[in-house]
Amino acid sequence: MIIMILSSYVKTVKWIRAGLFLGFFSLAAALLLVGAGFLYMRLLGEPEVAVPQSTLYFSADGQVIGESRASEKRYWVNLDQVSPHLVQATLAVEDKKFFDHHGFDFKRIAGAVVADIKAMAKVQGASTITQQYARNLYLSHDKTWKRKLSEAMYTMRLEMNYTKEQILEGYLNTIYYGHGAYGIEAASQFYFGKKASALTLAEASMLAGIPKGPSIYSPLASLTKAKERQNVILQQMEKSGVITASQHRRASAEKLRIIGEHLHTDIEIAPYFREAVQQVLADKLGADEQTIALGGLRVYTTLNREHQRIAEQTIKKVIADDSDVQPAFVSIEPKTHFVTALSGGKDFKESPYNRAVQAVRQPGSTFKPFLYYAALENGYTPATQLKSEKTTFQYDNGREMYRPSNFNHRYANAEITMEQALAVSDNIYAVKTNLFLKPETLVKTAEHFGISTPLKPVPSLALGTSGVRVLDMVNAYATIANGGKYEEPVFIKRVESANGDVIYEHEAKSEQRFDKKQTAVLTHMMTGMFDKNLSSYANVTGASMAPKTTRPYAGKSGSTPYDYWMIGFTPQITAGVWTGYDNGKEIKKVADKHYAKAIWLDFMEEAHNGKRVKNFPMPKGVTAVTINPENGKIASSHCPVTRNMYFIKGTEPEKYCTDHSPKKKKPQKKEKEENWIQRIFPIF
């Protein structure tokens, strides 16, 4: 018996020893596993916190003109930009011990398990703010063990690498508040139309209750349930000691005004312009599509909202609704080369193709100012004369023939000045000049003006037969308006990251590419299209527009059978319009041929309305001379038609016009004597 007892005792001791031994090694293995996991997570480092946020676009006056990701509103704000009431309300209802635990509230977890067992259902949550943040950032909201394990790992990594304030800030900026509002700033703006920093206790306590069930506790879904949830939160805040009973009562009784509208919902503001800005972000700043769409950038553009409004309304007013003609419009501020307005078509929703920056179309006679600038640089003056007559040109050593014609086949059949040739758009004068200078000269000049499309060095280039982009053309004219200073078109003034760091700021890089005096001469020549004194065998091309102008304009119109253009400027604004069919078919309707000029003139007149009239500058070294435009000579007081022309000093004409000198009248007495003699002696 004793032996049996001893034997049993020995076996028990062995089992106890084995159990202790196994327990020790299990504990050691568990500790080793935990330590390895801890080390692994340390080696992984801090998890990347990349929250998709709306990129906002601002006009030149700081107003939001649009945003990416319009269906989901996400605006990141720092913790100190959130109302303390909201922070306290969120902590009271979501995680009272947030600043005391390390990511997990084990007591709360145990309590939730007990509550769920008693109810035989999931009735109480135990996720901390850190766990919810991890879920919002990295995980789906399914209930699998794999997801829960991943959530635990991300929770630990967040706690190991970020401060409590950083985690709380992240949570408040990512939690969903319903109706497409992600984060407290978007929610505050949507529900109450104010910044998160301005929330009252009543507003904050209502917002803090929504994330538990946005479709249930949103005041727009059920004001009754939203108020019930608000009172629960106020009770928790009072219990926690962050508010008094009096504050509780006042907040509960406060009548709240629910707005229920998101900011920046008007996506109609300058959609073509914003698309061009996105292209600049990609091309010039190297931003990828994801960063542009989801990076939370703040893009401060050059858009003048008033210019854009006028442009869009004018296009809609001028072009008939049933017309298939499409427009492209660009306006630029000459001194800065800031693009102030841009439209690439009639309707962005119907056709997002941006004709202002993508389409390549023939510019027609709007190309001639580049030719005549080259002519000025090569010895021509506004008074230089060439014969306007029907002409067949031979080139390429006589192997090629070119027979241009003037509009309606009207020719002076006499010599005309370069200033008149530009004003009436004489094609013969232009082709002669192009061949005299050699077409390669025009190609180089146009490229220097910023024309980026390939140009063919042929005689017809003077008449705009090589395709160009509207943006390039308008910027080239802005260069003329800016006294020959060139800069690429500017769309963006500044770009900030989601954290407010400036990642790009525009620096002016203007370059004096062209002679200031010659561009002043060219500018004055370009005012001629509105001056009836230059009409002769043909009317100046702006004759129909001139009576409607209220200030000096310089410009040039142009047309081909398929394209109609008008580009011009004042010292304050340069604007250009192209109209045509996308399929390149010929424009035959008379009304369709006038759209470009009508849009341009209406825009310029309204955009300048109320602004001081500014004359074009005449730099030192340029002189104005009154000329007879018919012969290019200095006008006398007897010339019936005159025009002031600009010349570089030393190049102005020296000869005076004698074509209109008064005939000497014979004395009256002598005339009577002659008449008397003739009556008597008819032979005389």
UniProtKB/TrEMBL annotation:
Gene3D superfamilies linked to this entry = Biosynthetic peptidoglycan transglycosylase-like, DD-peptidase/beta-lactamase superfamily
Instruction: Give the residue spans that cross the bilayer.
Output: 20-41
Matches recorded under InterPro entries: Beta-lactam/transpept-like, Glyco_trans_51, Glycosyltr_51/Transpeptidase, Lysozyme-like_dom_sf, PBP_transglycosylase, PCN-bd_Tpept
Query: Where's the Penicillin-binding protein transpeptidase domain?
Result: 329-605
Tell me the keywords, alphabetical order: Carboxypeptidase, Cell membrane, Cell shape, Cell wall biogenesis/degradation, Glycosyltransferase, Hydrolase, Membrane, Multifunctional enzyme, Peptidoglycan synthesis, Protease, Transferase, Transmembrane, Transmembrane helix
Q: Which Pfam families match?
A: Transgly (PF00912), Transpeptidase (PF00905)
Residues covered by the Glycosyl transferase family domain: 62-238
Cellular compartment(s): Cell membrane
Q: Which reaction does it catalyse?
A: [GlcNAc-(1->4)-Mur2Ac(oyl-L-Ala-gamma-D-Glu-L-Lys-D-Ala-D-Ala)](n)-di-trans,octa-cis-undecaprenyl diphosphate + beta-D-GlcNAc-(1->4)-Mur2Ac(oyl-L-Ala-gamma-D-Glu-L-Lys-D-Ala-D-Ala)-di-trans,octa-cis-undecaprenyl diphosphate = [GlcNAc-(1->4)-Mur2Ac(oyl-L-Ala-gamma-D-Glu-L-Lys-D-Ala-D-Ala)](n+1)-di-trans,octa-cis-undecaprenyl diphosphate + di-trans,octa-cis-undecaprenyl diphosphate + H(+); Preferential cleavage: (Ac)2-L-Lys-D-Ala-|-D-Ala. Also transpeptidation of peptidyl-alanyl moieties that are N-acyl substituents of D-alanine
Domain of life according to the entry = Bacteria
Primary localization class, coarse:
membrane
Q: What is this protein called?
A: PBP1A family penicillin-binding protein
Task: Please give the organism.
Answer: Bacillus lumedeiriae
Tell me the classification of the organism that encodes this protein: Bacteria, Bacillati, Bacillota, Bacilli, Bacillales
